[in-house]
Amino acid sequence: MATPPLPSSTSTTTSVLSTASSLADSLFQRSLDDLIKSLRSDPSSEPSIISRALSEIQREIRSSDPLTKSIALQKLTYLSSLHFHPMSFAAFHTLELLPSLSPQTKRLAYLAASLSFHPSTTDLLPLATHQLHKDLTSLSNPSSSPFLPSLALHLLSLASSADLSSHLAPDLVPLLSRSSPLQPKAVAATYRVLSLCPSTVPVLFKPLVDCLSSDNPLTVSAAVGAFCELSAAPNDPAPYLPLAPEIYRVLVNSRSNWTLIKALKIFSRLVPLEPRLGSRIVEPICKFLCESQAKSLVLECIKTVVTCLHTHTEAMRLAIDKIKELLSSDDDPNLRYLGLQTLGMLAPGHLWALEESREVVAQSLTDPDRSICHEALRVMMAMTLQENSIENCTLLVRQAAKSDPEFANEILDSVLSLCSKDFYELVVDFDWYVSLLGKMVRIVHCTKGDEISRQLVDIGLRVRDVRPELVRVARELLIDPSLLGNHFLYNVLSAAAWISGEYVEFSKDPMELVEALLQPRTSLLPTSARAVYIQSVFKVLTFSCNSYIDENSSLLNDTIIARMLSLIEMTVGPLAESEEAEVEDRVMNLLGVVRLVANIKDLSGDKDKDGMIYEVVRAMYDLFSDEMGPVSANAQKKISVPEDLDLKENLDDLSEFMSDNDTTMSRSNPSILFYPQSRNTSEEVEVGPSRVAESTSLEEHRKRHGLYYLSADKESAEPELTKDYPRVNETLPPSNGDTARRVKVTKPRPTVVKLDEGEDLAASSSLSTKVEVAKDDTLSGAIKEVLLGRKGNGASSGFDASSSSQGKGKDKVKGKEIKSKKSEDGESKDRHKGRRKHKHKKETMPPVSVAQETPVIQDFLL
Amino acid sequence: MIRFILLQNRQGKTRLAKYYVPLEDSEKHKVEYEVHRLVVNRDPKFTNFVEFRTHKVIYRRYAGLFFSMCVDITDNELAYLECIHLFVEILDHFFSNVCELDLVFNFHKVYLILDEFILAGELQETSKRAIIERMGELENIYFRAMRFAIVILHLVSKI
């Protein structure tokens, strides 16, 4: 990079001389102290002082005198970092001051640069390349201060871009290799450079690894820290496996707790890849657990043991003892919090340990500190199994009733998601669960109405045996007038209404239901809920009429039926004038039937089974008595269009009527039959317009009753639309046949039925993981090739790889193939020094390279 | 890795802000406001660790100042608590019974101290003695020149 023209060289003496000429300016230049004092003296006029100062600064910073400039820059830095004024206009001036010989000015310039430069906002950064280069290599010049490079290192690590890093990477190498106080800093800057720009790996990696074995403990610590960050998620820790022996040595020899913590972190990432490492590090870890005084180190040991050393029982036992100690420290909330956190980590494998600490966890739920409550909730979630689900969930819901709104909703959320996972796998006693859902609705701050209503309907559809209980809960919700005003709950209420309509045969008192569904306060409900209410009334009415005729119910005598009919007519009548089309539609249907059966009580005693009223009632009852399951949203797609069906025909007529407003279509175009529920669509098998009607009415229906459709994102495997129902009995759910777990259950768990799903979940998830595995990151690839090349031939293959990779490193599109080819290169050079044929081998690299690494470690470990 | 360090007083004014990850100015403002709100409402008896977006903030209150450090989720909290304490001890030693005003007027020196023992988000030096020694040397280099220039200025102005 060409050096930009900079102002003449400056030293302290010349600046003093030139001060004479700019004396006037300097005398009146306010220093930083003055600025701060003026800001503090009058807080109310702060904006005006700041704007005045900014205009002064803008004037001063353009002067040619470096001292003035630097003081201006200092003031600007202050204003920028603490009062958020953008200082990008000063970027060029900052760069001008960077090369100044006076350490003070230089330092100010670097400070300003590191605080304000940003690869995305400053294009001028490349102009500083030469200066940074000079500063980084200034150690070779004996007259310059030994601390200059540290300034440059700071700037490099904070504000550099990938380009800058790749240019300056070679300058870092000498700093890394000589043991100076700067070495740890160089290591830290190196880590940043490496993560920004993987093409520098061949140049920088080897010196970095050498730092691991340096004499200076600070360097070692910095190097371990660098590797810890490099191997952190989301990066791939696999390339760092060959370094395991050296890090182990650090683990055993180092005295500094910081270093040990970092080394343990690296091991916790490497052990899952190479289990034999686990047996090596168990001893030092147990030693630390028993002897160390530092709580931070003990904590890190516990975390490492719990995450990756499951099979070593001794270590696990020690760790669990320590966790219990942490949990029981009453005076220090930090330790208790950490104890809960690590307890939660034990979850899948060692639930017995969590059970033992149940008391503490339950108590922590009531802690005033929100963080502790969260952790306790998480632990509770983790330790809930089928056996203790009832206990835990009851406890949690009770706690939710007592907590503040946010936490209560969080508890409800986790309970709902936990219990509904895998088709309600955890729930054994559905009666209890359904009543729990009812209780949740009553909690004052509950905002989870949507999820609760979804689950109520879902359970109703899947679990036959619980329907009586469900109807009971729904009845309680419907009767209560106070719930009608709560706008979070209208979803739940419409679900309750739907349930009581659908399963009315289980209810004890249909009249009560009708009264509840028609109470005056229902006018507070939104239209969609009201529509559901009215439809439920319809269903209850047909059921009642039918039972009245059959005379098989003691509750439904003449007076009651008459009352029901008159009540309906009275309350629903006015709604016939409603502006909402859906409500009006259903009301008309209902009123129509009511008027038809108005004289039903004349039938009592009359055994005339052929009368019109009788027929109407029977027909209506049959209509509602078939149980229909929900239809998958993709069901229509599954049907292949028959060849003689021409869907395009006749559609031109429709286009006149097509508009955004659904309701106009249903009223104005009589050729499209529209039923409130898709009951009769299964019966229609005519081809042509009615087929069109069927598909559009299906969509309409789906739009309006989206709540009751199963959301199917994935394609379903079955070819048939309406025949899915019989199939339901064949597919058995994953209900527990595992008798070993059912110790306390008094009645068998009802079967939970799977409806119209059968999506291949397995295939879709495997697809996504394949995509992730295919995405290789260039950094780990570059490191792999360096390490493998290094172990073989040493210098030569490393440099060859570096010269060619530096050219191609930036080309990430082809990166994967080139990487594997290059690592093949390195490896083939290891094995067959002369032969070049293997360069063009197919990509079978990854499994082979992993196999290569194991013998490498074995040599060192054994 | 440390993502940023903030020193804020009870009223929310930032006394020091050092970021180790690139952030826009407006984002910085938002972050500082959020961290302050998070931290100032907590009771002294609560834990010193709070979750913040997808990271953690480890904070401690010394007199009227909140020292907050934002670190990754997987980091060891107790170790960073020690780190904060080390920083405060060094400030105390350097400014002799430091108070908030010292930090306000000498903000560039505070940055110097901070840079000395944390680089690129990683803790470099854990020995208090070593840092203080180094600071002494640096102070001589950086601030002697300044003092010299100011002295000359005053002399010249008196002529």
Automatic annotation (TrEMBL), chain A:
Pfam families: Adaptin_N. Residues 793-807 have a biased composition (Low complexity). GO terms for cellular component: AP-3 adaptor complex; endosome membrane; Golgi apparatus. Residues 831-842 have a biased composition (Basic residues). Residues 808-830 have a biased composition (Basic and acidic residues). It is found in: Endomembrane system; Golgi apparatus. Residues 52-594 form the Clathrin/coatomer adaptor adaptin-like N-terminal domain. The keyword RNA-binding does not apply. SUPFAM superfamilies: ARM repeat. Residues 679-699, 725-751, 791-862 are annotated as: Disordered. One of its GO terms (biological process) is protein targeting to vacuole. Its main location: membrane. Keywords: Golgi apparatus, Membrane, Protein transport, Repeat, Transport. Belongs to the adaptor complexes large subunit family. Adaptor protein complex 3 (AP-3) is a heterotetramer. Part of the AP-3 complex, an adaptor-related complex which seems to be clathrin-associated. The complex is associated with the Golgi region as well as more peripheral structures. It facilitates the budding of vesicles from the Golgi membrane and may be directly involved in trafficking to the vacuole. It also function in maintaining the identity of lytic vacuoles and in regulating the transition between storage and lytic vacuoles. This is AP-3 complex subunit delta.
Automatic annotation (TrEMBL), chain B:
Belongs to the adaptor complexes small subunit family. The keyword Mitochondrion does not apply. It is a peripheral membrane protein. Keywords: Cell membrane, Coated pit, Endocytosis, Membrane, Protein transport, Transport. InterPro entries: AP_complex_ssu (IPR016635), AP_mu_sigma_su (IPR022775), APS2 (IPR027156), Longin-like_dom_sf (IPR011012). Its main location: membrane. Pfam families: Clat_adaptor_s. This is AP complex subunit sigma.
